[in-house]
Amino acid sequence: MLTASVLERARESAESLMTDECTVVRPGEAVTDPNTGEVKPTSTQVYAGRCKVQTSGGLASENVEGSAAQTMGAVSLVWSLYIHFPFGTMLRNGDLVTVTKSANPELVGRRYRMISPSLRSRGRRPAGGT
After folding, report:
1. Of 4, 99, 96, whose CA–CA distance to 52 is shortest?
2. Residue 51: burial class (beta carbons within 10 Å; 0-12, 13-18, 19+)
3. What is d(CA 26, CA 130) in angstroms, rounded to the nearest whole number?
């Protein structure tokens, strides 16, 4: 049986693996500078802290039927990437993640757009999910 204390220990264990750090901003409406006429995007920071950037652990290939790549016999290599956040972090599709600290120097400064934040981070299961 999952008790509150078991869940708390499991969450603490998961967070101990989050050795990367990132900031997440939510894009807002563009605004026009009345003096210059320049249109600038706005955003609001919605998270800053621990995270874990992880690949799915494998390489997949993708050929879209009828695409030029398929016609030429090419294979497009695709890596699935996951970014784990502490339980309760409220994210949405379109939020922008910037890695600010990582043991992997190739990740620092990388920006990613959230396309499918898990409802599990909000404490709910996705509809029809496992």
Report:
1. 99
2. buried
3. 28
Mean pLDDT of the chain: 82
Q: Is 22 exposed, middle or buried (0-12, 13-18, 19+ CB in 10 A)?
A: buried
The residue type found at 98 is: T
Rounded distance between C-alpha atoms, residue 112 and residue 100, angstroms: 12
pLDDT digits (tens, 9 = 90+) for 50-96: 999 998 765 555 555 566 656 666 666 666 788 999 999 999 999 99
CB contact at 8 A, 101 and 49:
no
**Two structure tokens written together for 25:** 């901003």
- 49 token code pair: 């802290």
Contact (Cβ atoms closer than 8 angstroms) between residue 119 and residue 125: yes
Q: Please give the pLDDT value at position 67.
A: 61
Instruction: Report the alpha-carbon distance of residue 55 to residue 77 in Å, rounded.
Output: 13
